[in-house]
Every structure is written in C-alpha cells, then in structure tokens.
Amino acid sequence: MRIIKLSATKSTNSYLRELCTQENLDDYTVVIAGEQTEGRGQMGTQWQAQSNKNLTFSVFKSYGKMEIEGQFYISMVVALSILKTLQMLSISGLKVKWPNDILSAEKKICGVLIENVIKQRHISASVVGIGLNVNQTQFENLPKASSLKSITGIHYNLDELAILIIKRLKVYFDKLASGQFQEIKRAYESHLFRKNKPSTFKSSAGNTFVGFITGVSDSGKLEILEENQVTKLYDLKEVSLLY
Ligand code: BTN
C-alpha cells in the first residue's frame, strides 16, 4: 500500500485526483494530510477539521469498467467499511445518515466525498475522501458534530486508524467486485439512520413533511413512505432530514 503523507494540502481528494491524471496509480494509494486548507464536503460545502487532530485522507480505487448505475454501491461499501471499523472500536450508537454520513448518538463523526473518474461512460476509478473527527473535542457552531475522543475519552493514533479503515475498504470493495449486491444493500439499510421511524423532512421547495425512511433504491435515492401511504424516491438535492 502506497501512503503519501502530507503535512498540509488544499484537499487530499484534489491532490489524488490530480495525481491520477499524471501516473497510473495502484489501488489503495492513499493521501493523508495533517491539514487541509480547502477541504471539500458534499454538494460544494467546506470540510473543516482542526489540523493534526483528525483524519483527512483519500483512497484511490480503480474498477476497470463499472456501470454508472452502480455508483451508489461505492457509497454503500465506503459507509459500511467506516461503520464496521468504528464498531470494532466499540463506538456506540453508530448509524449511516443517507447517503454516507456516519453518526454516533445522532452526531456526525465522519463525512465522505467520493469523486468518480468517468471514462467511456463507465466509472473507471474513484477517489474516496474520508473526513473522520478523531481527537478534536471542540466544535464551535457545530452542535451536531462529534468525534471519537468526545465519545470515548480515548486519544487515538491517526495512522493506525487510517490503516484499519483501508483494510475494511479492501474487504468491502472485494464484496462489490464479487457481485454481493444484495448483501451490501441489506447491510447498508440495516444501519440507516431513522429507518422506519416517523421523521420530518424538508423538500427543496422549502415544505416540511412527515414520513418514514424505508430504504434506498439501487440508484441511491432515499425511499420515503409518506402520510398518504405512497412511497416516493428523493435524491440528495430534493430533500433533507430534519433531526
Ligand atoms: C461531507 O460530509 O460533506 C463530506 C466531507 C468529506 C471530507 C473529506 S476530508 C478528506 C477528503 N478531502 C476533501 O477535500 N474532502 C474529503
């Protein structure tokens, strides 16, 4: 496994994306940064993390040719890999908030930004970016954020933690490569935050409504059973869960 350790960079995802245009990377080439000056989150947001206290890293994974329709399976295996690693460390109350935030006791401890490389209308590779809050314990203006140390009181070794996650990624990407789609989806849905619980959502038009999350579609849309007993599918831009 090739690990590129940087004291600081703009974004480990940007660094690895650039690197994969310059050379043929081996699977599980990893870029870890002590500090990101322009860390990126989902949907154009910023990812902020105190330097040298958290894990901010990106992993390269190639596939040959994966159907674009299967891209949510990449999200699911990444979320499961992180969740399983944290379960091994006895972190309590772990859930996946759709699509791939990892929560402990309803607080976000990890975010994932997956950027796919598309070639000839197929996914040829992904840059999997993981931001895990580890030893930081102050989260100003972020009441819904937490970290491993805030939960357990333990100070963690960042490199060891990264290796544990990468090992799990290998296990789960192998399951994906061997076509274990049902198992992956079933496992993902079993950890879904607020599944089958009455929940309040906000639509992109600003309306709030009540419904039950029942699962996800193969394409990664959230299935919500609404009050009129109709199940509707939503993508990330169309709905947010209020909690
Ligand atoms: C989110 O929850 O919005 C996703 C956050 C992803 C953050 C990680 S940190 C390592 C990698 N590099 C980035 O710029 N972003 C991801």
Classification by helices and strands: alpha+beta
CATH architecture of the largest domain: 2-Layer Sandwich
Order of helices and strands: EHEEHEEEEHHHEEEEE
Count structural domains: 2
Count of extended strands: 12
| Count of DSSP-assigned helices | 5
Oligomer status: single chain
Assign the CATH superfamily of the largest domain.
Bira Bifunctional Protein, Domain 2
Mean pLDDT across residues? 97
Biggest pleated-sheet summary: 7 strands, mixed
Per DSSP, what share of the residues sits in E-state strands of 2 or more residues? 35-45%
Strand order of the largest sheet: 1-2-3-7-6-5-4
Output the CATH class name of the largest domain. Answer: Alpha Beta
Could you estimate the helical fraction of the residues in percent? 25-40%
Keyword list:
243 residues, 5 helices, BirA Bifunctional Protein, domain 2, alpha+beta, SH3 type barrels, seven-stranded mixed β-sheet, binds biotin, five-stranded antiparallel β-sheet
Give structural notes:
With 243 residues, this protein is of the alpha+beta class. It has two domains: 3-190, Bira Bifunctional Protein, Domain 2 (BirA Bifunctional Protein, domain 2); 198-242, SH3 type barrels (Roll). Helix content is 26%, strand content 36%. It contains five helices and twelve strands. The chain has helices at 12-22, 71-88, 148-152, 158-177, 181-190, and strands at residues 3-9, 30-36, 55-67, 94-97, 101-104, 107-119, 122-132, 198-203, 208-216, 222-226, 231-234, 239-242. Strands 1-2-3-7-6-5-4 form a seven-stranded mixed β-sheet, sandwiched between helices. The chain has a five-stranded antiparallel β-sheet with strand order 11-10-9-8-12, with no helix packed on it. The chain is globular, with a radius of gyration of 18 Å. The protein binds biotin. The site of biotin has 20 residues, from helix 1, strand 3, strand 6 and strand 7.
